[in-house]
Amino acid sequence: KIADNFGFSFASSRNLGSTWYSTPDQIRFVSYLTLFGMSYLSIEEFSHYERFLGNLLWPDWHFESLSFYGQNIIMNHLIKTKQLNIINLKDYLDFPSDSKTNIDEIIQIHVGDEKDVFSKFQFKEGKYDNFTTNVEYPENVKNYSLRMALESKRMSYEELNKLFLIISERKE
Questions:
Q1: For residue 7, what is the DSSP state?
Q2: What string of DSSP letters covers 73-85?
Q3: Residue 129 — φ and ψ, nearest 5°?
Q4: Which of 160, 155, 153, 148 is nearest to 124 (CA)?
Q5: Handedness of CA 25, 28, 32, 35 (dihedral sign)
Q6: What is the largest CA-CA distance in the chain?
Q7: Deepest of 9, 83, 116, 150, by most Cβ within 10 A of its Cβ?
């Protein structure tokens, strides 16, 4: 329905999310057009009450995911009309943080609301504060996610600044 309102084609590609890869020019192009999709959805599809009070017709998390909805509309049109060439790397990008997969086999981790380690909500609530970063199997995604989160949380601003300077010097 929404694609029709735009006069767009729909390629039936679902849940593209953050799992696609393309050239910088195409990524900028999609990002720019996604803003229009987000704006349309925000103004025309989400009622005033849904934007500020919760869900009536859309899931309760709809507004936080507006970029994904907007992007999905735009990308489907561009894919269907052959204006976009992408590679879907769903096995490497947006990888779930509760996985036991080796960290060297993926590119990017998506920390979600998993029930097992590692969950961003449990982390925010402090449920991992007493965990140690010396875990068995540190190379798996869930333990790597836990270690990175805890080490960064425990760093002082001075330590973080020193680390930033070291990394910056390596790039020069």
A1: T
A2: HHHHHHHHTT---
A3: -55, -30
A4: 153
A5: positive
A6: 55
A7: 150
CA dist 65 to 27, 42, 62, 133, Å?
Answer: 18, 11, 5, 32
C-alpha distances out from residue 66 to 9, 28, 118, 172, Å? 20, 18, 24, 37
Mapping DSSP to helix (H, G, I), strand (E, B) and coil, where does residue 133 land?
coil
Looking at the DSSP bridge assignments, the partners of residue 102 are 140
CA distance 105 to 166: 26
Q: How would residue 105 be classed by pLDDT, with cut points 50, 70 and 90?
A: very high
74 and 22 in contact (C-beta within 8 Å)?
Answer: no
Burial of 6 per CB tally in 10 Å (0-12, 13-18, 19+):
middle
Residue 68 vs residues 10, 93, 107: alpha-carbon distances, Å:
15, 15, 20
> What residues does each domain of the chain span?
2-88, 95-171
d(CA 21, CA 87): 5
Q: Are 140 and 102 in contact (CB under 8 A)?
A: yes
Residue range 56-67, pLDDT digits in tens: 566 555 666 788
